[in-house]
Amino acid sequence: MNLYEKLANEIEEAVQRGVFAPGERIASVRHASQQHGVSIKTVLHAYALLESRGIVETRPQSGYFVRELAAPRAAGKKAQTSAVASEVDVSRLVLSTLRSIRANDAVPLGSPYPDPTLFPWRRINQYANAIARRHASWNLIDDLPPGNPQLIRQIARRYAENGVPVDPDEIIITVGATEAINLSLQAVAKPGDTVAVESPTYYAMLHAIERLGMRAIEVPTHPADGIDIDMLAQIIEKQAIAACMVMPNFQNPLGFQMPDARKERLVALLAAHEIPVIENDVYQELYFGETRPSTLKNFDAKGLVLHCASFSKSLTASYRIGWAMPGRYRAQVEKLKFLNTLTTPSVPQVAVADYLRQDGYDRHLRQVRKAYRQQARIMSAMVLRFFPAGTRVSSPQGGYVLWVELPERVDSMRLYQAALGHGITIGPGMMFSTKNDFRHFIRLNYSYPWTSQTESALRTLGELVAQMA
Known about the structure:
alpha/beta, Arc Repressor Mutant, subunit A, Aspartate Aminotransferase, domain 1, Aspartate Aminotransferase, domain 2, four-stranded antiparallel sheet, 15 helices, PyrdxlP-dep_Trfase_small, DNA-binding, HTH_trans_reg/aminotransferase
C-alpha cells in the first residue's frame, strides 16, 4: 500500500469512528504533512483520494471538511445487472478528478479537453479585440435569447451546407453545450422523472440529471452501433421514461458513429411513444471519414429531437459558445435560457461569427481531423503494446478519446491514484456510469501531439496496470 493510501485510510477510519464530525475541518495539508511525517505531495494525493470516495470536500480558501453525509467507497458498491433507475451522484468524483488534472501539471491523458494549441484562438481574439474597439464609444449590450443574429445565421448556414435543413429561428445560443443540455432536459422533464441514457455515458449527461433531481436508467451501448434500441424498447414498455439522452456521433467515451439506419430507428421508436430525445453532438465536426455524419435531427418529423452542440471542441473552448435546436420545445428552452442566465455575452458571439464568415474554418478542421486520426492510431497501438494481455481498446470514428478495457482485476480508481503519483492523469471508468460496471475501464485523451513524454507516460501506465493485474 502506498503512503497516500495508508494516510487516506487512517483519516477515513477516524471519520467513521466519529473522531471528525460531519462538517468539521480536518488538518491543513501543511499541518498533516508535519503531523504524519510525509511530504505535502503525499497529503495532497491522500486528500484527493478521500474526496473521490466522498469522505471529504474542499471549500475555497478554507480547506478540507468532512462531508455532511460521507458516502461509502465507490469501489465497494455492487454492480447492478438489471435496468433499474438510480439516483445520480457522480459530480464529486468528476470534480475531484478534474481538479487533480489541473492542479498537478501532469501528462493530460485524463483531460476531457482538446489540445488548445490546435485552435485558432489568437485569430478569434483579434476579432474580439477589433469588435471591442469598434464599439468603444458605447456599451455593447449582451444579446438576449435567442442570441446574436449574425452567429445564428452562420450556424444555420453550416448545417445547410452539410445537408441538415435548419430553420434559423429554431437556434438558441447558450453558454456552451452544457447549458444547452441542461436547458433542454429542464424543458422536457421534471424532478423525480426517469431519463434513459447510454451506458457508458458522458458524465455531463449525468450531471444534468443529478442537478435537476431526476433518475437515470442506463441502457447497454454497443461500441460500434450505439445504444441498444431493443433494450430501450423493453424499458419503455415497462416504465415511464420522460426523455432519452444520447451522443450518436463519436460518443464520449466509446467514440462510435451510430449508423444512419439505427439513428432513424431510434428516432422512430421514441416518436411512437412521444418521448423527446436530447442529442449531444459536440463532436460533430471531428469525424475521421470523408463526410460529416448525419444527426438525429435529420430524421426528426415530430420536433421531438432537442439537438445540442458547441464550438468548444472544434474551434475555441475559452469562449464557450454553444447552441440548442429544441424542436417543438423551442419556446420553453428560450424562456429557461432567459430565466437561468438572462443573456450570452455579445463579443464572443460576434467574434466567432466573423471568423466563420471570413476565415478558413474548414481548412482548420481538416488539420485537426488529420492530427486526431493519426494520434488515435498511435495511441491505440501503444496501449496494446505496453499494456498486459487482456487489454482491449475502442475504435473511435471521430473525436479525441480512447476507451480502454483493462484486465478485470484492475481497479481504475486505484490506477488513477497510482498514476497521479507518477505525474500522469487518466479518466477512471466510474465517472461514466451511476453503477460500478466500468470499474476496470479508463478513458485516455489523444488530442495532444505524440511525444517522448507521452510514450514514457503510457509505458509507465502499462507497468502499473500489469502490477495490478
